What we know:
Protein name: Site-specific recombinase XerD
Domain Tyr recombinase: 199-373
Family: Belongs to the 'phage' integrase family.
CATH class of the largest domain: Mainly Alpha
Strand order of the largest sheet: 1-2-3-4
Helix content: 40-55%
Shape: elongated
Largest sheet: 4 strands, antiparallel
Number of domains: 3
Number of strands: 7
Organism: Thalassobaculum litoreum DSM 18839
GO molecular function: DNA binding
CATH topology of the largest domain: hpI Integrase, Chain A
Number of helices: 16
CATH superfamily of the largest domain: Intergrase catalytic core
Strand content: 5-15%
Amino acid sequence: MTKRLTDQIVRRASAGNRPQVFFWDDQVKGFALRVTTRGAKAFVLDYRVNGRQRRITIGSYPDWSVAAAREKAKAMKREVDLGADPMGERHDERTAPTVKDLWSRYSSEHLALKSPRSQADETAMWRDLILPQLSKEHVRDISTDHVERLHRRISVERGTPVRANRVIEVFRKALNLAIRWQWRSDNPATGIRKNPEHKRERYLSLDEIARLNKALADHPEQTSTDAIRLLMLTGARRGEVLNATWDMFDLDAGVWTMPSAHTKQRRLHRVPLADAAVELLRRIKRSNESVYVFPGKSSDNPLTDIKRTWQSVCNKAGIQNARIHDLRHSFASILVSHGASLPLIGAMLGHTQVQTTQRYAHLYDEPLKGAAELVSQAINGASYGPNIGD
Length: 390
């Protein structure tokens, strides 16, 4: 039936025994009232786009009046005339991927390729920091303002400015992948001003190393102290040492070959071992039946935590403000003091980028100054006139 819809018609409209009935408006083509057998009433609009018949619900009665629904229908028809598809856009809105969907795909396709430690760390970032704020937001709607608010909340409200920087780095990577997946065309996390970070550089002196060796020898826990010794002797990362398996070592050749899945850079890394490291490993192997060099409580799993032992030996040795990772920096500083070049240090530590090793360049100041003094003395000694600098 077709006639001009009025409030009186809408109030009286009934579907009777039929599942639903449409009361079509004769003023706006395609505009109608739909009534179900249970008495539910809603305004709809039928239209055609690209040869396809569409029906979109405008709203329910009495939430929408006849006049308001008719004006909305007119506006939609104007959009259709301009090439829009209101029903398609509404469907896209419902099905558009959210940040929660982004996390799901990111974790399965990207994060799964990272080390267990990185997986655990980034999972915590998403679970505790990103998703509580943004999970329901559509990826295409994420703006720079969203990202800045997230960064600010972690920095200020939680008081963890460095963590805030790491979270934004992870989120930026996820949004870069969203661009690749054609979920959006730009990355709003690019260019976010990060909190200042001061690189912490702590090198153990030879005296501290001597005291540490004494404390390690006196400590009752041998597995974790041996792990710390291997860290000192190789400059390897904690995860590389704790997850090391015997099949990575050729003790006759004195070489530790880390497979790509074992290293931070995801590249095979071949580490020549000093005689002291080989001797340490031979001693460990004599009483070790696990596939892991440093087994945990179960021989089927690696040791996961040496922090308590580290803190204990540092306290006994009187070493303040030192982290386990500082053993890696100390390894590099000893190499510098004995004349090793930056490329050699980078190769020993498994660096893939020159700028990573460049952080140790300032350690050359004293050796270089000494070399400059030697040149100065030679020049002054060979001079016939006044010495340079006089």
